[in-house]
Amino acid sequence: MIHGIERLPRLKLGFYPTPLSEARRLSSVLGGPRIFIKREDLTGLALGGNKCRMQEFILGYAREQGYDALVSTASSQSNTCVQAAAVARMLGMKPCFVLLKGVHNERQGNLLLHDILESDIEILELSDLTQVGGAHVSEKLDAAADRLRSEGYTPFIFKHSLPHIAAVIAPVGWVNGADELTQQLRDRNVKADYVALANASGATQAGLTLGMKYLGADCRVIGYTVLWKAEDAVAATIKQANATAEYLGIDTLVDEGDVEIHDACVGDLYAMPNEECIDAVRLVAQTEGIFLDPIYTGRAMAGLIGSIREGRFKSTDTVVFIHTGGTAALFAYHEGIARQQ
Ligand SMILES: Cc1ncc(COP(=O)(O)O)c(C=O)c1O
């Protein structure tokens, strides 16, 4: 256990450790490196995903503070919000979201799951997810919280940007995730040279990078941002990692040398996934029987494949790809993904 984590309020939401499976056929088709896939899509919470580890600590905190409603925001097909809604229901809290509309706002994919959960949802006519931390969305969140207060609730407002407490806590679960992964690799006698994953808010990469550095693991974490320019994603990830280190009371500091992020797979989150992403989703399904998602893991895998083709790795290297979940969104994006009839 990493210092400082044991004293934090925490819910037990996932089934851990998540499986780590070797992707031999994928690796062989790509001509190396050796690839493992960490199946974070199998956490067991609301169809799985990387946010389960975060919700354990964020909603653990919210429950301890006595909140009985949750207000949050993201895109209409957000996996994070569905997992938060599911946990809120498990805790008897009211789930309430202000979502950015985009083009996939029919009751399909994650919006279908919200419908089943009966989340309280307001959809904004905004299509650019980079506005999610902006003033307009923030005002809408505050208005939703005021409405809940007038109905007698005590809402926890879950904002994704620093210095909001949820953004400070979010990486904690992945500091723990680094501990779990290094232990798993040790038990399997595997030396991983790299971990590769999707980066959006940066919380997962921040936590993993901080955890790996704290543990002294000789393993570089590489992010594929789906949303930002690489230099902005690097800055945000470093900031978040160090805010979390301070919160945990550990003196490990993450700097530019620790954070590698590529932005070749950035896209408009609301547009249909590009060809490289769809090809990556199909390749992993057809070699490993594993379904990625069209927004995060498909783009990150497309980025990883691009890095392999550019010679970023030696054929003898070992890369662990984190399957961060999101599979439900495949169904919302079916028109872009399905082959033409
Ligand atoms: C499936 C999936 N993968 C990756 C990410 C990115 O994680 P982070 O926001 O921690 O960078 C998200 C974020 O919503 C996600 O839903």
Report a brief summary of the structure.
The chain has 2 domains: 20-50 and 171-337, 3-Layer(aba) Sandwich (Rossmann fold); 51-167, Rossmann fold. It is built from 13 helices and 10 strands.
Characterise the protein shown here:
By secondary structure, the chain is α/β, with parallel strands linked by helices. It has two domains: 20-50 and 171-337, Rossmann fold; 51-167, 3-Layer(aba) Sandwich (Rossmann fold). 43% of the residues lie in helices and 16% in strands. The chain has a six-stranded mixed sheet, with helices on both faces. The chain starts with 19 loop residues before the first strand and ends with a helix. It binds pyridoxal-5'-phosphate (PLP). Pyridoxal-5'-phosphate (PLP) is lined by residues 49-50, 79-80, 198-205, 293, 296-297, 324-326. Pyridoxal-5'-phosphate is lined by residues 49-50, 79-80, 198-205, 293, 296-297, 324-326.
What are the key terms here?
globular; six-stranded mixed β-sheet; Rossmann fold; 341 residues; binds pyridoxal-5'-phosphate
Which overall shape is indicated by the principal axes computed on the Cα atoms? Answer: globular
Poorly predicted sequence stretches spanning 5 or more consecutive residues: none
With strands numbered from the N-terminus, the spatial order across the biggest sheet is 1-2-10-7-8-9
Question: What is the highest CATH level, the class of the largest domain?
Answer: Alpha Beta
**Overall number of structural domains:** 2
CATH T-level topology of the largest domain: Rossmann fold
What order do the SSEs take from the amino end to the carboxyl end, as H and E? EHEHEHEHEHEHHEHEHEHHEHH
